[in-house]
Amino acid sequence: MKKMMTIAAIAAAIGFTGVGPAQAAPLSIPAAPQTTSTNTPQNVDFRVRGGIYFYNGHRGSRRWHRGWREYRGWYFPPRAFYRGGYYRTAPRYYYPDRPRRYYKPRYRYSDGFSRAHYRWCHNRYRSYRSYDNTFQPYHGPRRQCYSPYD
């Protein structure tokens, strides 16, 4: 009985809610506020880095190459002019304010041998390795290379 009364109450509530007349009126859409941007958009397709010209990420050349196209006095490969598809599927972002990355020069191990020593050992032994100054003889373990330039 309790279940039947609940169902009847829900049915009555649903039945009486949609009794009013339907109205079809256009919705008023507020106008978008006018904003002025202080930043002007940058053309990221054609840019210069260190005196080298790039178009869509492809390096340009002053010389003509077969199949390349000319743009603003520079020649670029055909792939630079394609949009989408295989060549350029994702957008490229250009961050002009990002500083260049500095890499420390690699440490070069020098064990005191001259270039003439390395050249002499390379010419004399086919299996010579310059980083550990050894060669592999026909019989036995690796041996040190002793040159007249030691």
Automatic annotation (TrEMBL):
Keyword Transcription carried by entry: no
Membrane topology label: Single-pass membrane protein
KW Cell membrane (keyword) present: yes
Major localization class: membrane
Molecular function per GO: carbohydrate binding
Signal sequence, renumbered to the chain: 1-24
Biological role stated in the UniProt entry: Has immunoglobulin-binding and hemagglutination properties, and can bind to mannose. Essential for virulence. May be involved in LPS biosynthesis or polysaccharide transport.
Record's protein name: Lectin-like protein BA14k
Organism: Notoacmeibacter marinus
